[in-house]
UniProtKB/TrEMBL annotation:
<dbReference type="Pfam" id="PF00296">
    <property type="entry name" value="Bac_luciferase"/>
</dbReference>
<dbReference type="GO" id="GO:0016491">
    <property type="term" value="F:oxidoreductase activity"/>
</dbReference>
<dbReference type="InterPro" id="IPR036661">
    <property type="entry name" value="Luciferase-like_sf"/>
</dbReference>
<protein>
    <submittedName>
        <fullName>TIGR03619 family F420-dependent LLM class oxidoreductase</fullName>
        <ecNumber>1.-.-.-</ecNumber>
    </submittedName>
</protein>
<dbReference type="InterPro" id="IPR051260">
    <property type="entry name" value="Diverse_substr_monoxygenases"/>
</dbReference>
<keyword id="KW-0560">Oxidoreductase</keyword>
<dbReference type="InterPro" id="IPR019921">
    <property type="entry name" value="Lucif-like_OxRdtase_Rv2161c"/>
</dbReference>
<feature type="domain" description="Luciferase-like">
    <location>
        <begin position="17"/>
        <end position="243"/>
    </location>
</feature>
<dbReference type="InterPro" id="IPR011251">
    <property type="entry name" value="Luciferase-like_dom"/>
</dbReference>
């Protein structure tokens, strides 16, 4: 089971260069970064974890930060957990992701989600009740641009003409039921377990990225059933649990459940504090 790391990276924390170097040196499998473009001050949407962390308003762009991390490493995966796909122009974002994947040698994992902050999404023109459909369309546009041959897509919330576009992401296409192959980097959908989410995972992603491991014993069989019903191969499903505070028993439990990757939570702090946290997590990492 792979052990990676995440934190709320801001203009006040350890830099992406230093964190990536420390993670690679210590044998961690990857670096994952979250995304908020902004936090509107007049906000009615409650933060899912209780009090809103101040770091949410100071986050670096994950794609620019990961590009810095890519330039100083050779091995670790570079991922988002999660990217707010509905809040981006999909043609521009497809180019950014493909470029990062190309320059890093195919190391990108795209964790995507639907978001929790209605006000933030609405500032981007996202109709909140339809945000899941927006994400689905955005991903379909990007898949069309990542395809090995020019491919058009037209959906409810946008489309793209069949186009010549390079670079292409490095990951090989994967099969899916009745709708042709999936192109692009490994894509994991974040969100709470449920039939709707698992249908989307099986339709247009490579796996699931839940926050924490609560309820996995019940959720993973349901996900695997939805995956099989969609005609996807069992060995193609990837599960990465994020924001984990690890202990030996918890990691052993995840391993027994067939979790592929655990993303441990680091403090949103400076270099000394983050490196001290990595020292404490070293017992879980095998180079």
């Amino acid at each position: 089971m792979r052990i990676s790391a995440t934190l709320y990276m801001t203009d006040e924390t350890i830099t992406p260069v230093r964190l990536a170097q420390e993670l690679e040196r210590r044998g961690f499998a990857g670096l994952y970064l979250p995304e908020h473009t902004h936090i509107p001050v007049p906000r009615e949407t409650p933060y899912p974890g209780g009090e809103l962390p101040p770091e949410c308003a100071r986050m670096l762009s994950p794609f620019i930060a990961l590009a810095q991390a890519a330039a100083v490493t050779e091995r670790i995966a570079l991922g988002t957990n999660i990217a707010l796909i509905a809040q981006h122009d999909p043609i521009d974002l497809a180019k950014q992701i493909a470029t990062l994947d190309h320059l890093s040698g195919g190391r990108v994992t795209l964790g995507i989600g639907y978001g929790w902050n209605r006000e933030e999404a609405e500032d981007h023109g996202v109709p909140w009740p339809r945000r899941r459909a927006v994400v689905r369309d955005r991903m379909a546009v990007m898949r069309a641009l990542w395809a090995d041959q020019p491919k058009a897509y037209e959906g409810e919330f946008g489309g793209v003409r069949a186009s010549e576009v390079h670079p292409k992401p490095g990951r090989a296409p994967r099969k899916r039921l009745a709708k042709g192959p999936l192109f692009g980097p490994r894509t994991l959908i974040g969100g709470a377990a449920g039939p709707g989410l698992f249908t989307h995972v099986a339709e247009y992603a490579d796996g699931w990225m839940p926050v924490g491991g609560s309820g996995l014993s019940e959720a993973l069989p349901a996900l695997r059933a939805a995956w099989a019903d969609a005609g996807r191969g069992a060995d193609e499903l990837y599960v990465a649990v994020t924001a984990v505070a690890p202990d030996p028993g918890k990691l052993a439990h995840y391993g027994e459940l067939g979790v592929d990757e655990v993303i441990v939570q680091l403090p949103p702090a400076g270099e000394a504090e983050v490196c001290a946290a990595l020292d404490g997590l070293g017992q879980y990492v095998t180079s």
